[in-house]
Queue: 4 jobs
Job 1
Amino acid sequence: KNEVEQSPQNLTAQEGEFITINCSYSVGISALHWLQQHPGGGIVSLFMLSSGKKKHGRLIATINIQEKHSSLHITASHPRDSAVYICAVSKRRKEETSGSRLTFGEGTQLTVNP
Amino acid sequence: ETGVTQTPRHLVMGMTNKKSLKCEQHLGHNAMYWYKQSAKKPLELMFVYNFKEQTENNSVPSRFSPECPNSSHLFLHLHTLQPEDSALYLCASSHAGVSGANVLTFGAGSRLTVL
């Protein structure tokens, strides 16, 4: 079983719909990341959060540390939102470390149709 | 462009070839990473460099050899690869803070095909 699980694996929506992608993890973390990968490969960091909620434009990310669960919401979805959305966690380590070592989920392929 | 530049974007090589992937960032970051993304699998961390020193080798076969001459440049030298090494290789960079949780900036990736 992966330490980071995402659902759904694939999601198709109509333009304007409200979208939710879920992420569950089974390890102690120092932070959770949401990333976006467009066709061609480039990855963009959307959010890094360790508690509560963050909002950027039409994107909202929430995290519940007790339940080890995070959600990414997209309001008023648009075809340009079509991409793979990836959840990743920075695992909490006993020793101090530098930099980020992320453990990734398998990603959610989102397609938004006009 | 994200600030992390990878070259080449596409590479086709035979199993006996030697080639290198290059990554460059001028974001003032001190940590650089190589990740591998195979079809239908999550990204896998390969190597981490902090201030030019390798701090993690995630059990990567020796046919992959990283080099970090300075905090702005990272190479991945490839030799005698196998077809199963065909994948997207992503470079990333971040600040090297001790929190263990820093935002990564990714390059566009180098798509490698091994024949």
Job 2
Amino acid sequence: ETGVTQTPRHLVMGMTNKKSLKCEQHLGHNAMYWYKQSAKKPLELMFVYSLEERVENNSVPSRFSPECPNSSHLFLHLHTLQPEDSALYLCASSQEATSARGQFFGPGTRLTVL
Amino acid sequence: AQKVTQAQTEISVVEKEDVTLDCVYETRDTTYYLFWYKQPPSGELVFLIRRNSFDEQNEISGRYSWNFQKSTSSFNFTITASQVVDSAVYFCALGTDSWGKFQFGAGTQVVVTP
């Protein structure tokens, strides 16, 4: 069984749509993360959750809204996105919200905004 | 400030050749962690290795080997006898004992042709 799963794997949406990305981790970890990976750019950390509490928000626009109902699930709610938001969105988890043990990543959601 | 530099954007080799990926890092922390991840075309980042700042032993795992040199702030990765399945983007990352803040390098695309 894959440790971190993400759905959907691909998403195409218009700028006025509202959609959500889902991430689930089966590793018993306490921290979860959202990253954005755009073409030809480094991975950008968006949000960090530790024990369901948001501990980091890297100046992400409000059109991205995270939700962490429990330590196994993480959502990213999307609304009124722009074409430049098209990217691969990666979810990750780690045992704790420190870097010591590394992060485990899901397969990502490829988002296209028309 | 933390920084990870992967100066090689793309490396192309023929199968069975060795390939070395460079990673140079900057940090003011005395305790830190270095990682390598592989991202195949499917998109998922696969954890390869973690090394902490107090352990300068080189490591070999099958065809993979890592050379950590604190004196030059480098953590290089070598694939011996490359195979087509090694074609991927490889990321070096730096972490510290803070809230899950990884600093990823820009990645190096490795293309292995038969």
Job 3
Amino acid sequence: AQSVTQLGSHVSVSEGALVLLRCNYSSSVPPYLFWYVQYPNQGLQLLLKYTSAATLVKGINGFEAEFKKSETSFHLTKPSAHMSDAAEYFCAVSLRGGNTGKLIFGQGTTLQVKP
Amino acid sequence: DTAVSQTPKYLVTQMGNDKSIKCEQNLGHDTMYWYKQDSKKFLKIMFSYNNKELIINETVPNRFSPKSPDKAHLNLHINSLELGDSAVYFCASSVVAGTGELFFGEGSRLTVL
């Protein structure tokens, strides 16, 4: 069975500081991995996805994530936080080659950005 | 022009009532979903339809009945509402089932009193 664990339900950084949101996954087959962002009172928006051989994935708004199979991790980073990055971030996994499109989400990490 | 739109955005109702949430996508996608987000922001899939055919039904109480009249629409009807049904319900769509890249609506916040 697949699962996702996000380490840290709340992360607080200062504006301009590095953002690091942690995600570990469990999957019996090579997975597809995703990061979504949810701004207050809005739906989820795709930040980036890992679906192929490129282990360093660049997404929107300056975010990137690195797939590390040996560590079963897919941590999200951004070199310099902006106030506008404050939101809820979700890591998700789906079954590679599956035909259901079912996403399993982590429990989410709230990112707070302090001025 | 909203890609995935849900109505209503907010719904407040009494226990025991029946309510519906509608979803429409104009992206030409084949697959649509309903996800439930609880008060702790945990997201869980409820249903998925591919070209009007139900392909995922995640042990949801049968008080919840999805209906897909065509591949651009997926509605959710809930009978005999309970307090525990209070949540935000998200509709989503994707191009091909299996890739996991979903496009979400803005959510419908249901409050059961």
Job 4
Amino acid sequence: DIVMTQSPDSLAVSLGERATINCKSSQTLLYSSNNKNYLAWYQQKPGQPPKLLIYWASTRESGVPNRFSGSGSGTDFTLTISSLQAEDVAVYYCQQYYDKGTFGPGTKVDIK
Amino acid sequence: EVQLVQSGAEVKKPGESLRISCKASGYIFTTYWIGWVRQMPGKGLEWMGIIDPSDSDRRYSPSFQGQVTISADKSISTAYLQWSSLEASDTAMYYCARLAASGIFHFDYWGQGTLVTVSS
């Protein structure tokens, strides 16, 4: 099984400041035949189902604000919120879909 | 508009059986795989398994293989998650979600969730 880890477990960022979440996989998520990283990011607010933000490690889902961006390749990935807004308070999960699927443990983002 | 509408909350006793459902609309049901995700109280997301509604090809997480059964009825565009004998540890919110394309991909649309409570 592919194991996903995230860091930090939680972070508090001032409004308008940058938030950075890291995700690491136990094996590569880069599929050599198509050069795509099988990694997605989701946002979950309390009492709601998760919402897809980013797929293929860096492709923003339609309708997702451009302050959200994804980067990385292979085993190390990052979700960046360039200017934190109040509505971004949530738990963020990475997920690999290279081999079935595994979610990371989540990172809680709050306002400082 | 793509929608996944899940069945309502359930309260069951240990040892009982249960089947929850996820009705899809707004797209061709057999074109996209559907998956199930568990979220235990206060915890993170767990990928349980997926099914291809066109031929019922299934893939399970090793953690859930043999513990649950995923099925689909393409005549009514509905996917199911079932247990033959519930345990207290099955208490959780269960989400169905559509995979973004045929095969193993990310989830692009999610149901609202079904809360399952197992208690004696």
